[in-house]
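Saturday, quiet lab. Running sequence design on the structure tokens for the scaffold JK sent over.
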């Protein structure tokens, strides 16, 4: 069975192969995806059914291609006995190095590569079920050489592997090989580009996949031309956009329904969905949640506040720090596997998804205090907050947001900001 990106890095369960997909016809793969929807308690809408059929067709092609590859790889005694032509040596035995993302690193366009199933780029609004369809597709296609990755986790690992391979003439190729192994189906969830550095790496990754016979299936909230939307940097990713549009089937998942919103009351209460949005109007830092107001009453601004575990705001004496990567991060408190930190402590300082990913592994519950309207902070803190929500949802971490504004006020003020539509869709999973 295929794997995710390193044990413990991506919390995507390894699904068992559906019995219906052993033959891997289009109909059987589609039936397996539909069965996953039924098991989850919902029916595919028209747009999702269209995408499921496209994925089923691709799945059947991948299974056929893998079967042919297995036949080609089977031992051939006659071929093994053939002498090596004079003057021809094994490049690996000779220690030939491969230039970085250069022609020598690119396999010949053999017949086998020419028949590699064409990948798919699936895009559409937040909450339409793209990630769910990707997971269902992963489980429905009975091949071993497959890998499902998520943007933040993958790129943090890629940076780490590039650093570990520094000094090699093939730094990037080595790093990618270490990460994806022998996978021939690469599923890339939440494909988005805001950073020029990521744009360069993504382009190289797409080129590597295409040159090495790897079928890529990606989901995104953006049409290809909408990636790296900054007019200052957009040109950097134009080569990557050209690869997507020329080498992958671009498919839109249409529809207006955001299922995170429409099914919020019916969602299974586990992980992130057990979290809450708690409206706590601004107060001095020395006051704790539940402290007496001036009129002698105890504030209980939201019924969700009562559901948060040990929801009393930590006293100043509980302040502590976290060490990570040679840096020190001040936080409000650590209570066992609960992290308490203000918006400023997490997002105004120069944190990144690297820290969020590690803390998602270290803490089962997060309390994010003093969440302001995003309009009141700069672009970088806004993007860090959006990235953190992505990580919390992907790792299914219980998170409680203690905010200056009500949920509706926060959502209304966030409209139009980078990636806010995805963040807002995900926040609708919270109790409030």
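Result came back. Writing it out in full:
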């Amino acid at each position: 069975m295929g794997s995710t990106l390193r044990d413990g890095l991506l919390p995507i369960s390894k699904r068992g192969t559906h019995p219906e997909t052993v033959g891997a016809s289009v109909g059987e793969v589609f039936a397996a995806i539909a069965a996953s929807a039924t098991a989850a308690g919902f029916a595919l809408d028209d747009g999702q059914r269209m995408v499921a059929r496209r994925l089923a067709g691709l799945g059947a092609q991948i299974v056929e291609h893998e079967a042919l590859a297995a036949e080609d790889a089977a031992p051939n005694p006659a071929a093994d006995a053939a002498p090596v032509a004079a003057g021809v040596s094994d490049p690996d035995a000779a220690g030939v190095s491969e230039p970085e993302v250069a022609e020598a690193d690119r396999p010949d366009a053999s017949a086998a590569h020419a028949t590699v199933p064409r990948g798919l780029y699936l895009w559409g609004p937040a909450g339409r079920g793209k990630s769910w369809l990707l997971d269902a597709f992963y489980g429905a296609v009975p091949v071993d050489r497959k890998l499902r990755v998520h943007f933040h986790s993958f790129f943090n690992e890629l940076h780490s592997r590039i650093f570990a391979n520094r000094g090699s003439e093939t730094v990037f190729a080595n790093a990618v090989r270490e990460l994806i192994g022998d996978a021939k189906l690469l599923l890339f969830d939440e494909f988005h580009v805001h950073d020029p550095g990521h744009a360069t790496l993504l382009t190289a990754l797409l080129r590597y996949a295409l040159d090495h016979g790897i079928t890529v299936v990606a989901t995104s909230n953006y049409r290809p031309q909408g990636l790296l939307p900054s007019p200052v940097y957009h040109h950097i990713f134009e080569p990557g956009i050209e690869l997507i549009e020329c080498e992958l089937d671009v498919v839109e998942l249409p529809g207006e329904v955001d299922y995170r919103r429409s099914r919020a009351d019916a969602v299974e209460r586990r992980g992130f969905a057990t979290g809450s949005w708690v409206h706590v109007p601004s107060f001095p830092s020395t006051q704790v949640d539940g402290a007496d107001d001036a009129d002698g009453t105890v504030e209980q601004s939201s019924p969700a506040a009562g559901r948060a575990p040990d929801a009393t705001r930590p006293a100043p004496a509980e302040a502590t720090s976290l060490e990570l990567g040679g840096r020190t991060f001040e936080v409000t408190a650590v209570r066992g596997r609960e992290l308490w930190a203000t918006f400023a402590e997490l997002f105004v300082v120069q944190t990144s998804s690297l820290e969020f990913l590690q803390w998602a592994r270290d803490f089962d519950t997060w309390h994010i205090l003093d969440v302001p309207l995003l309009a009141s902070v700069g672009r970088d803190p806004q993007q860090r907050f959006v990235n953190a929500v992505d990580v919390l949802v992907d790792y299914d971490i219980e998170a409680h947001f203690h905010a200056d504004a009500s949920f509706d006020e926060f959502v209304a003020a966030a409209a139009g900001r980078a990636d806010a539509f995805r963040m807002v869709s995900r926040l609708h999973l919270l109790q409030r």
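Notes for JK: The first strand starts at residue 3 and ends at 4. The radius of gyration is 24 Å. Ask whether to fix the surface positions before the next round.
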